[in-house]
Amino acid sequence: MTAIPKAARAVVTGAVLAAGACAAPAAGDPAVPWAAVGLLAAVHALCELPSRGTAAGRFPPVGAGSFFPVLLAAAFLLPPPAAVLVAAPGSLVGGAEEPGPRLRRAWRAARLGLATGAAAAVYGRLRPGPERSLGAADFPWVLAPALAASLAFCLVAAVLDAVVRAAAERVPPGARRPLLPSPAPHCVHGLAGLTMAVLWKSPYGAPAALMVLPPVYLSCRTFARYHRERAAHQATVRALVQAVDLKDPYTRGHGERVGRASVLIARELGLGEDRLETVRLAGTLHDIGKLGVPTRVLRKDGPLTPAERRTVELHPEYGHEIVRGIGFLGEVREAILHHHERLDGTGYPYGLAGEAIPEAARVVAVADAFDAMTSTRSYRRARPVGEALEELGRCAGTQFDPRMVRALTRAVQREGWQTAVTSDEAVPPAARPGPRGVPVG
User: Fold this and answer.
1) What angle do CA 168, 173, 177 make, to 5 degrees?
2) Over 70: is that where the pLDDT of 133 sits?
3) For this UniProt entry, which segments traverse the membrane (predicted)?
4) What is the DSSP string of 265-286?
């Protein structure tokens, strides 16, 4: 088990002391509504309990931010020192990972407490009027201060996260991931918290305010499930790509670069975001069928025999079969199957021609050939980018779709392209051009 570095422990200690100092004035303030503080803290703790122990099996946690509306409602209802206290019970009873679960809970309590206190301070300074009343006369003027408070919550929490991560990983803040997250979710949480605060101050009181939480929980749970599924999809794709790279080191990294080039083409064509993801995955996985080609053929020194070339030309069909059972790939399977078809109908495996070739496959075919030509491998040097684009233009209309070639040319001329060395092995096999045309990966 990896121990938590001393620098990270020092940051956590400092944050806990800072949160304690910010909350201390509440102890001597007779104006603090302790009943509201206790109820909000209890609600937040109750919401966090499912993330701990065996209860998580029946009520899976939905991720950080699930109950930020409770904390932001506290920021709108309470003075800053009291608002700091609301996050503590829920953070201390919630789930925590190893190593150092107690330290992690203390960190979460301090981080969320400081963020909630900052949101309360911003809201108190910007809201119209001297009191924290939330009646009809306060709208719409209260919306801007509430959104500003939500952004303050986001900023303080993100900066604290970046500082402790930098201390734990010994890298500068923002070096491995963006320093600031998207503020949009926090603004949504802020509006939900404002709704809770308005209902809390209404004649219906706290019971009506708590009715905001179930739909927030369900929406956050759905959102978290989507992200877990997306992460699982990305892990599946990475595993497949790594398997191909291990089997065919001469084209290491080729799939990811073809995915990037495919996205350049698709963006230039004005395709929507869903289509961009489709062509990216198709480009990344286009050679997955090489897993079905014997290693001795892929790594052979010298030119392939006709029989060996026919074996290699089966890799689109192998790839189609390999990903057949991966439901989220959808149209990607067809692009994998047909990325070696040619516009004039002389390609493989089915000899499709023109518009009969799926659009994503035509995109990947151009991206594949472009990266193959511009990558230095152990058996040949890379062509210059301009020369590779000229070669693609020469073969447009026979081997490649001219639209795709023009789109790639415009995108590369505007954004540039980083050529790559795809193998560090010293084996000097002969170049392996694609059949009757431009070399392909």
Assistant:
1) 95
2) no
3) 67-88, 109-126, 146-168
4) HHHHTT--HHHHHHHHHHHHHT
Task: Check: CB of residue 279 under 8 Å from CB of residue 329.
Answer: no
3-state secondary structure at position 357: coil
Q: Per-domain residue ranges for the chain?
A: 6-211, 231-421
SS3 318: helix
| Residues 6+ away with beta carbon under 8 Å from 213 | 43, 47, 67, 69, 70, 196
Of 8, 181, 224, 182, nearest in space to 99 by CA = 8
Tokens, residue 227: 């992200």
Query: 3 — phi, psi (to 5°)?
Result: -75, 155
The C-alpha atoms of residue 13 and residue 389 are separated, in whole angstroms, by: 57
CB 314 within 8 A of CB 301: no
Structure tokens at 89: 């019970």
Q: What distance in Å separates the CA atoms of residue 69 and residue 136, rounded to the nearest whole number? A: 21
- pLDDT value of residue 86: 94
pLDDT tier for residue 136 given thresholds of 50, 70 and 90: low
Query: Do 286 and 335 meet the contact criterion of CB atoms below 8 Å apart?
Result: yes
Tell the residue number behind the tokens 């997955």, with chain if given. 288
Phi-psi region of 286 (alpha: psi -120 to 50; beta: other; left: phi over 0): alpha
CA gap 356, 335 in Å, rounded: 12
Tokens 């991206």 identify what position? 367
CA–CA dist 200, 205 (Å, integer): 4
Amino acid at 303: P
> What are the backbone angles phi and psi of residue 401, rounded to the nearest 5°?
-70, 120
Place of tokens 């010293």: 426
Rounded Cα distance between 111 and 84, Å, is: 10
CA angle, 38 then 40 then 45, to 5°: 90
* Euclidean distance between CA atoms 118 and 155, whole angstroms: 9
Query: What spatial distance separates the first Cα and last Cα of the chain, rounded to whole Å?
Result: 42
The structure tokens 């092995």 sit at 425
Whether 405 contacts 396, CB under 8 Å: yes
Match domain 231-421 to its CATH number in 3.20.20.70, 2.40.50.100, 3.90.1170.50, 1.10.3210.10.
1.10.3210.10
Kindly provide the residue ranges of all beta strands, DSSP E only, lying in 15-64, ordered along the sequence: none
Nearest to 134 by CA among 91, 196, 176: 196
Q: What is the pLDDT of residue 282?
A: 92
How many angstroms separate the CA atoms of 426 and 250, rounded? 10
